[in-house]
Amino acid sequence: MSDKFQPTDSYKGVRDFYPEDMAIQRYIFYSWSKTAESFGFERYDASILEPSSLYKAKGAENEEMVNEQTYTFTDRGEREVTLRPEMTPTIARMVAAKKRELAFPLRWYSIPNLFRYERPQRGRLREHWQLNCDIFGSDSISADIEIISLAYQTMIDMGAKTQDFRIRISDRAWLTAELKQYNLDDNQMKLMIQLIDRKDKIENFEEEAESITGKNMDFDSIALPDDSNVAKVLEGLKQLGINNVVFSPTIVRGFNYYTGTVFEIFDTSDENNRALIGGGRYDNLTKMFGGEPVSGVGFGIGDVTMRDFLETHNLLPESIRTTAAHTVVIPTDAEMNLAAQEISQKLRKAGQTVSTDIGTKKVEKKIISADKKGSRFVIIIGEDEVSSGKFTAKNFATGDEKTGSLLELFDFLKA
Ligand code: HAM
After folding, report:
1. Is CATH 3.30.930.10 the classification given to domain 31-43+84-317?
2. Ligand 1 near 259 CB (within 6 A)
């Protein structure tokens, strides 16, 4: 009969978050939102469901993403629906919908979960969360600088040192102009951009480039002019004290919608060779909704790579690993459960986090377990305590004890 039981595994490529994982996840999200808000970004959200057409529309389309990586299905009303693989088309839709009412430039952030049908591997899963920060309605490179400095600050605020990560930056507009000198048609241009995106991973770049363009390309000798956008962004970042940035002509980014500055942030440790953060400027994405486009610039940071990064560099504080209640109230036996619950209720009213151990184990075992879980205080409730109204609280860390009425214990329990 055992083949009738359901497997307890989660679906391939997604994660269950047991409390220890959830504590880490919450820590990361909390740090992300604090940094985003410290730059004046406002939080937004949307549903994970979007009409599939949003990802197929001209300007947004990304063939690999739409054809191979989306979770798409037909709903009961025959509508084609997609679980969002990224947030950028959604924010573009939301901005376009309220274009007349919104005050630009606006700065918004969100922490959505996203779904991509990818081969699960280190740093890449089928569901991940992403901090997205975007500025809409500014054509100035000041917005590019602002966005990259925010991405930088999210790393610093998680405890990263500047030598732990590197920002690589390029410019789609510059790259397209460079390639135009070779008189490429649209398709050759697209193939070349995809090839440059893979340049660092392949060995026969020159051969492949020649087979696409029919020409001999000396990509490595391309230099950056002093008055280019990238040079100005680099200069601006330097003025803000951000020096771990390099011009990197092979940073192209997979999405077709990018039009200007593009950047990625990498861990300098070899263990995590995938990008932690990716973003750039996309001036025309809102065009698909009609009217004058509103330009955007932003980035996404993934939670999977961020956790790998924090673990590799030993940056997860020990203290976040516990979500145990501050105080545990232990009844001497089941008869005392309700009395213990009443005491806990009073302590909570005074602002404490308290759990009542209503399990059936012996008191000694319960005390050991409360200590192990990371609670700071324990109070045992038996008949004597209830009749006298005097309770003894013990501090696990110091071994100190104090006996008194609940009122008399409040200060002691604050430690
Ligand atoms: P992206 O480069 O596809 O950009 O994703 C940004 C980050 O999300 C990546 O650097 C990576 O850390 C993480 N990520 C992406 N796919 C996965 C996956 N399958 N598993 C785990 N982590 C993943 C975008 O999505 C753009 N929409 C970002 C953006 C916002 N551009 C402008 N505004």
Report:
1. yes
2. no
